[in-house]
């Protein structure tokens, strides 16, 4: 601790003041001491009371001088102590400021070193993902999980790395099959390897943390397009706000997965720019209790999918095809079922469609028999368009 330079000067000033006081009062004190001594001698030698009075008076004056001197000395000492306290307090404050500044600099240097180490670990993890050994890839994925919790600056990069790894290590091969005179696109490949399973699990855990933060949720839009999820375990996976154009979910398990606000369909402009993609198909996919709220599922196909407890509330299911799926517990509240094909589904009730928008919707025969119409909610223009189309078909049939 550095001592203030003001302290020696104040000490000298205090000592000088004391000397000045003594130098001023000492002659008086000696003078009255001489008078007291003289009066005392006269008092011994003379029996008269007058010398005694003179002695008492001189003694009292000397006592007053001594008391005054003591008071001044006490006052000077008090002033010195106060000044010394103030100086010590100032030195302490300066020391605390210097200590805080040193701590801040050390913390800043430590943070820089920590971020440098995290960046090095991230680079090494990315390098390990490119190795052939499965154990090396799993180790890298585990490192990415740890780095996500330690580094705020690299979180979005880690999410992108895991997503890219899943896509690059899960290529699919388009395969065309003929079933009941209808062509369906099946994208199949080998089963998921252990490293990809680990990456999906880690990414799922990370995205759940992300979506727990409402502010970050609005900014995050991931692209899971053209990824092969064939027979993948995606239970409780948060696809929220994602794009999944052309992805393969054949025989995958999406139990309780969150697909709310997902987009599975290109806009007309995108279709004109990007090569045509087949509609997304959930072939044999387990979608039990899956959340599709507000999802864009135009032209999506759900052949033989398990839909128990799935929620399609507010979803856009324009031209979607549900095949022969069981829909007894599926929610369609406020869903857009324009041109949706529900003609072959099982266990669908009128109550489930009471809040849905039905227009040119293909309904199963057992519901039509109960009096519900697939054009229940069509606008006038849509009804005229449908009537015109049916009229053209009738004329064509008569002409033939």
Protein model, in words:
This protein has 400 residues and is mostly helical. Helices cover 52% and strands 5% of the residues. It is built from 9 helices and 4 strands. It has helices at 6-45, 49-129, 134-150, 155-168, 194-211, 214-219, 268-273, 365-368, 380-399, and strands at 173-179, 182-188, 336-338, 357-359. A two-stranded antiparallel ribbon has the order 1-2.
Which helices and strands occur, and which strands form pairs?
Elements: H1 6-45, H2 49-129, H3 134-150, H4 155-168, E1 173-179, E2 182-188, H5 194-211, H6 214-219, H7 268-273, E3 336-338, E4 357-359, H8 365-368, H9 380-399
Parallel strand pairs: 3-4
Antiparallel strand pairs: 1-2
Helix pairs in contact: 1-2, 2-3, 3-5, 4-5
Radius of gyration: 47 Å
Shape: elongated
Largest sheet: 2 strands, antiparallel
**What is the number of beta strands?**
4
Pick out the low-confidence regions: 1-6, 173-190, 267-276, 390-400
**Structural class, from helix and strand content?**
mainly alpha
Helix run count: 9
User: Beta-sheet strand percentage?
Assistant: 5-15%
How are the strands of the biggest sheet laid out side by side? 1-2
The span between the termini is 107 Å
The level of helicity is 40-55%
Which whole number gives the mean pLDDT? Answer: 76
- Topology as H/E string? HHHHEEHHHEEHH
């Amino acid at each position: 601790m550095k001592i203030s330079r003001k302290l020696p000067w104040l000490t000298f000033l205090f000592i000088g003041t004391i000397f000045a006081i003594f130098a001023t009062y000492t002659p008086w004190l000696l003078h009255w001491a001489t008078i007291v001594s003289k009066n005392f001698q006269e008092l011994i030698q003379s029996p008269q009371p007058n010398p005694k009075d003179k002695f008492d008076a001189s003694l009292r004056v000397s006592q007053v001088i001594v008391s005054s001197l003591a008071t001044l000395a006490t006052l000077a000492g008090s002033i010195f102590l106060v000044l010394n306290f103030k100086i010590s307090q100032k030195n302490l404050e300066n020391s605390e400021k210097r200590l805080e500044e040193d701590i801040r600099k050390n913390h800043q240097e430590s943070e820089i070193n920590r971020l440098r180490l995290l960046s090095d670990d991230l680079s090494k993890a990315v390098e390990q993902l490119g190795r052939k050994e499965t154990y090396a890839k799993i180790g890298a994925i585990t490192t990415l999980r740890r780095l996500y919790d330690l580094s705020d600056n690299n979180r979005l990069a880690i999410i992108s790395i895991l997503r890219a790894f899943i896509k690059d290590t899960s290529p699919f091969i388009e395969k065309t099959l003929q079933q009941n005179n209808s062509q369906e696109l099946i994208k199949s490949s080998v089963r998921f390897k252990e490293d990809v399973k680990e990456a999906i699990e880690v990414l799922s855990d990370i995205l759940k943390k992300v979506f727990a933060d409402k502010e970050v949720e609005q900014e995050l839009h991931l692209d899971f397009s053209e990824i092969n999820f064939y027979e993948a375990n995606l239970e409780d996976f948060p696809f929220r706000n994602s794009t999944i154009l052309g992805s393969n979910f054949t025989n995958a398990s999406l139990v309780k997965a969150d697909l709310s606000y997902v987009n599975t369909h290109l806009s007309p402009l995108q279709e004109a720019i990007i090569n045509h993609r087949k509609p997304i198909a959930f072939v044999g996919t387990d979608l039990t209790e899956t959340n599709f709220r507000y999802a864009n599922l135009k032209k999506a196909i759900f052949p033989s999918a398990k839909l128990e407890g799935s929620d399609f509330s507010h979803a856009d299911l324009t031209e979607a095809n549900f095949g022969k799926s069981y829909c007894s517990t599926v929610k369609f509240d406020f869903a857009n079922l324009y041109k949706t094909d529900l003609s072959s589904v099982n266990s669908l009730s009128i109550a489930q469609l009471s809040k849905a928008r039905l227009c040119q919707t293909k309904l199963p025969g057992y519901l039509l028999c109960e009096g519900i119409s697939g054009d229940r909610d069509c606008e006038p223009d849509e009804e005229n368009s449908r009537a015109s189309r049916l009229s053209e078909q009738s004329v064509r049939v008569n002409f033939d």
